[in-house]
Amino acid sequence: MKTDFKLLVNGKLIDGVSTFDVINPATEEAFAQCPRADEALLNQAVAAAKAAFPAWSALTADERGAYINRLADAIEARIDEFARLLTAEQGKPLDQATYEIGGSIYTLRAFAAMRLPDQTLRDENGNTVIEHRTPLGVCASITPWNFPVILLANKIGPCLIAGNTMVSKPAPTTPLTTLLLGEVAAGILPPGVFNVVCDQNELGPLITGHPDIAKVAFTGSTATGKKVMASAAEGIKRVTLELGGNDAAIVLDDVPAKIAAQKVYAGAMANAGQICVAIKRAYVPEAMYEEFCTEIAGLAETAVVDDGSKQGSTIGPIQNRMQYEKVRDLIEDAKTRGRVIAGGEMPDRKGYFIPPTVVADLDEDAPLVREEQFGPVLPVLKYADIDDVIARANDSPYGLGGTVWGMDQQRALDVARRIDAGTVWVNQHLAIDPNIPFRGSKQSGLGSEHGLAGLMEYTQAHVINAVPLAAEPA
Ligand code: NAD
C-alpha cells in the first residue's frame, strides 16, 4: 500500500512543513505519514486557487464537465487502491469502502452533467428580466472522518462545475484518501483549480476567516459548525453546513417485528453507526416491543466485528480513539439506566472495536437517547400513541433525517410529513442521491448539498432587468 503522500498546491505535489502519523483504527498502529501544511502553505493554496479562477470560470460548463468526468474515470481506474486505503485509514469493511468510492465516482459524474440555465423571470411589454448564476470564486471544503471521499466528492462536483476553484482540507485522522485524490487530480485539472492541504486541526479557523475564500462547504459536528458560521460572519462568506443528527426511526404497528428489526438494524449499524443519518433512536409500538428486541438482538449477535480488510468483516472499528471513548462511555452510562440486550462489552484486543450494542428500556432523557452517539449502539424505545411518538421524535435540537416504517404506505407518509427533519425516508434508508437535495433542519445544518439546490449554493444569483430605451425624450 502507498505510504508516500504529498499535498497538492498549484498543481504540484509537495511536502508539508512536517508530517504526522496516520493510525489504522483496527490495529492502533501508524501505517503512513501525512504531510502537514502551515498557514503559509494554506495561503499559497488559496492564492493558487484565486489565480486559477478567471481561466477556469471562463470555460464552458461542458468543458468543465469533461474535466470532472476525466477525474471520475481516473479514480475509477484506481478504485481498489482507493478502497484499500480508505479501509486502512477509516476502518470500514472493504466492500463498504469500495461502495463509498463507487458512490463518489457516481456523484462526480452526476454533477459533471448538471447545469443551471438562465431563468427568464419576465418577458413582457419589452421588459426582460433574466436571472443567471455566476461562480463565487475560491471555495473551501472541510470534511470529517466518517466518509472522507464521498463527502469531498459532494463538494468538488458542484464547486467545479459551477466555475469555482477549491481548497480542500480533510479531517486529520483520515487525510490519505483525499491526498490520493489530489494526486490523481494533479494529472488532470489545471494547476490551482483543486488544492489539498492537511492539518492536525489548526487550519480550520484560518480557512473560515480567510479573506480570499468566498464560501465554506463544511461537513462535521454541530459544535464545529457553529464556529465555522461565526468565523464566516466576518466576511459574510457563504456557508453550507452539513452537521450532526439524532435521527429517529418510527416503526408503525402494522410491520412484522422481524422485518422492522432487520431494517432498523441495517440503518443503525452500517459504517459502525458513524453516519450522520444513521438511525440513532428506534421507536417501536408497545405491543411488539419484546418481539422486536429479541429479533434485533439476534441480528447484533451475528455481526462479524473485525478489521475491515479481513474478508467477512461486517463492522469495522470506530475511526479514532476519541470517538471510541465517547461511544464506550455512553454505553457504560446506558448500562446503569437500561437493559443491554446485545453487545455492551468491549473486546479485549487491539483496535477501537465496539460490538453492535442495543439498549432497551431507557428513559427519553438518557444521554444515549438525547445525544448523537455516532457509533454502533442503538436505544430501542417504546410508544403507545402516534402523536406522542412524533412529539418525542421531534423533541431534539437536531433535524437531519429520519425513517418511518409501515405496511400501509399512506399512513407512513402521513407520519413522515410530521417529522421535522431535512429528509425523511419511508420504508427505505440512506437513499442519498446527488440529484436530490439533502439538508438539515434546526441545528443539523444550513443550506443544501446535492441537486440543483445544492449546485446553486456554489453560485451568486445575478438578476439583469432590462427595458428598451425610448428613441425620443419623454
Ligand atoms: P468535526 O466537527 O470534529 O470535524 C470536521 C472537520 O472540521 C475536520 O476536518 C476538522 O479538522 C475541522 N475543524 C476542526 N475545528 C475547526 C474549526 N474551528 N473551524 C473549521 N474547521 C474545523 O467532525 P467529525 O468528528 O470529524 O465528524 C463527525 C460529525 O460529522 C458528526 O456529528 C456527524 O453527524 C457529522 N456529519 C454530518 C454529515 C451531514 O451531511 N450532515 C455527514 C457526515 C458527518
TrEMBL record:
List keywords of the entry alphabetically: Oxidoreductase
Return the CDD domains for the record.
ALDH_AldA-AAD23400 (cd07106)
Q: Identify the residues that the record assigns to the Aldehyde dehydrogenase domain, covering every copy.
A: 18-462
**Active site (catalytic residues):** E242
Q: Which InterPro entries match?
A: Ald_DH/histidinol_DH, Ald_DH_C, Ald_DH_CS_GLU, Ald_DH_N, Aldehyde_DH_dom, LUC3-like
Specify one Pfam family. Aldedh
One GO term in the molecular function aspect is: oxidoreductase activity, acting on the aldehyde or oxo group of donors, NAD or NADP as acceptor
Q: Is Oxidoreductase among this UniProt entry's keywords?
A: yes
Question: What PANTHER family would the database entry show?
Answer: ALDEHYDE DEHYDROGENASE-RELATED
Q: Which family, according to UniProt?
A: Belongs to the aldehyde dehydrogenase family.
User: How is this protein named in the record?
Assistant: Acyl-CoA reductase
Species source reads: Novosphingobium mathurense
